[in-house]
Write a sequence for this structure.
């Protein structure tokens, strides 16, 4: 019974891509930035080979051992963009030739007007903003007037913040569905995101009831795996990112700790197929807030929990640990960064000590997983299965 556990450490990039200058990301290296903190400690990922990857080993010259337990690679992004949706879709086999639209000056008046008309509520803010700062600056007005806080970021997102006692969750989610219907054609943003919060001014806090409404992707490896009669288990944001397409079972998580718990639980289940996990705290809580120490602590925590994941692996299981983009917490920018991503593969059927260098696209992951399940790929990418399998 073959199982693949694909874990995305959201935003853990490993160095600028050749075209990083076009995105304002020259010098970005998320993993190295986190490693400058005294709280950084990843002995288990080191044992699996993380620090032997191209672009990583040069930053960590103290890594002297010649052997490691896994197979590793560095993957370049072929898609245009550096956002969550684009990165995950490429991992699943879709290369996006055109980036999702972004709105550095806020959304056009006609979009806001139609949204107000269909929701029956006014809109406030409508500009790029930090998610924590926007509720601090606009939360009181929202509570008093019922107006919806609409904001964006450097990513292709239409975010709606509302107090749970002013706008019940069901209503907020409905407003997001309305926005998703409006944002089509040239305004097809990658995600519409519900951002509920609670509390009283000035101590508002976001809740775990966030919900993402992504564009519907074309055929991905998830569709092909599901159509082959195998299981596709989503953990965390995966179901949202793929708009539920190709998923057979899903569970939401409130943070990395719960995401890792759900992953460990799924190693104990009898299923054949893939368990696809997103751990978002690296990006959401630390990368976007330029919190180097927080980022380092989150990586250290993941590393400390990793042995529990490894214990649950069976003879034909493959664990793949990767990322979707960068979000260097040490640069002036609080946005995602255009970076290579790591791939660390491990299992009893995986050759130890293999470095397959730099790959041209994240989509090679999809091609490899499909080949492992003996599924003829309908997605972009080149399999490296023969290079890593015993």
């Amino acid at each position: 019974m073959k199982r693949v556990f694909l874990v995305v450490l959201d935003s853990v990039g490993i160095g600028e891509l050749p075209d990083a200058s076009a995105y304002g990301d020259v010098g970005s290296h998320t993993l190295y930035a986190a490693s400058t903190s005294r709280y950084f400690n990843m002995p288990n990922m080191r044992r699996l080979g993380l620090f032997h990857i191209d672009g990583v080993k040069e930053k960590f010259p103290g890594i002297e051992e010649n052997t490691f337990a896994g197979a590793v690679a560095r993957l370049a992004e072929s898609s245009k963009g550096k956002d969550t949706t684009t990165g995950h879709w490429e991992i699943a086999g879709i290369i996006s030739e055109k980036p999702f639209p972004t709105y550095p000056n806020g959304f056009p008046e006609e979009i806001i007007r139609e949204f107000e008309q269909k929701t029956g509520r006014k809109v406030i803010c409508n500009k790029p903003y930090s998610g924590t700062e926007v509720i601090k600056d606009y939360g009181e007005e929202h509570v008093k007037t019922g107006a919806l806080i609409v904001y964006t970021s450097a990513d292709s997102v239409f975010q709606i913040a509302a107090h749970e006692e002013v706008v019940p969750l069901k209503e907020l989610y409905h407003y997001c569905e309305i926005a998703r219907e409006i944002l089509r054609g040239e305004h097809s943003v990658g995600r519409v995101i519900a951002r509920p919060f609670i509390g009283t001014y000035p101590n508002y806090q976001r809740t775990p009831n966030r919900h993402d409404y992504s564009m519907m992707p074309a055929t991905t490896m998830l569709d092909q795996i599901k159509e082959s009669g195998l299981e596709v288990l989503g953990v965390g944001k995966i179901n949202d990112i793929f708009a539920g397409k190709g998923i057979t079972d899903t569970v939401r998580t409130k943070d990395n700790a719960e995401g890792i718990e759900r992953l460990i639980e799924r190693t104990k289940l009898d299923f054949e197929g893939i368990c696809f996990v997103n751990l978002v705290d690296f990006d959401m809580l630390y990368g976007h807030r330029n919190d180097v120490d927080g980022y380092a602590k989150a990586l250290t925590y993941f590393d400390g929990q990793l042995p529990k994941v490894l214990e649950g692996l069976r003879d034909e299981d493959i664990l793949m640990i990767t990322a979707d983009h960068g979000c260097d917490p040490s640069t002036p920018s609080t946005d995602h960064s255009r970076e290579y991503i790591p791939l660390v593969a491990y299992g009893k059927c995986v050759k130890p000590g293999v470095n397959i260098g730099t790959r041209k696209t994240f989509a090679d992951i999809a091609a490899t997983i499909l080949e492992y399940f003996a599924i003829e790929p309908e997605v972009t990418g080149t399999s490296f299965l023969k290079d890593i399998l015993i």
